Amino acid sequence: MRAAAYATSGPQRGVIRIINLPTPQPGPGEVRVRVRVSGVNPTDWKTRTAVTVAPPAFELIIPNQDGTGEIDAVGEGVAPQRVGQRVWLYNAQWRRAHGTAAQWIALPAGQAIPLPDGAGFDLGAGLGIPAITAHRCLFADGAIDGATVLVQGGAGAVGHAAIELARWGGARVIATVSSQDKAAIATTAGADLVVNYRTDDVVTRIREFAPYGVDRIIEVALSQNLEVDAAILSPAGTIASYARSESAVTPPRSLMELNATIAFVLVYTIPEAAKQHAVTDVSAALAAGALTSLPVVRYGLEDAAGAHDAVQESAVGKVLIDIP
Question: Suppose 39 and one of 35, 66, 177, 267 were both cysteines; which one would form an S-S bond, judging by CB atoms 3.0 to 4.6 Å apart?
């Protein structure tokens, strides 16, 4: 099979190249998926370019956590009726050497989730990491029906999923963006209020819409936005931060006065029960037609390196790799 892969050591460490590898066979409890579309996330390029002092776990890695395709073989203990099923994949390369940037992948059956009729491969390939992260940020403390949610960075993959899942969960949604194009994305996703933080007075606009504050903030840049978050958070509200802060964070005293919570979310290490809750809800929202795809930026497998570069350079939309 054809695959994009990179070495984890030596002079070519982290350099993606296209190679031929044996087609994998599913082991016990696994399915084999003929991959059609591979989704690229920031953690994919960050993992590839990370400098570590520990010996690498694998000499060669096929990157990318998310993707879609059809099951074409099953291992022992998996219902044979799953052959032919269209599926979306998540956490495919987590603690494994084989991600979705290849023509085939074998992985645990529970990480291949049925794709409902009407949901295309592009949409499914953009779920995984973004949607499960967004779900954890939104629902870690329970239902959000009737709540007011702020999504900082509403045009990103996690932000887009958070807007749609929050609306599906019954919340009013505010989103911040940095341009008119991104405002259109957040509005189409269903945000009730979209604020351009480059041109608008964010605190004033949000306080006009939600005079008692927002109940939950989905945060992409905690150190940068914390003062604003503190100014519009409701008493006992929560800030759920899913991205690493580039500088130290000093919480203002007002957050203590609000009895606020700052919660950190890393999708790979959330409790297994939380992952399953997210998969169940994301599947339900998908079946209900509540989730849509971001604008797509497409690459072929031969230019998998370009796809990683596009995500690293903050391409607007979802970067996908078509698998031949």
Answer: 66
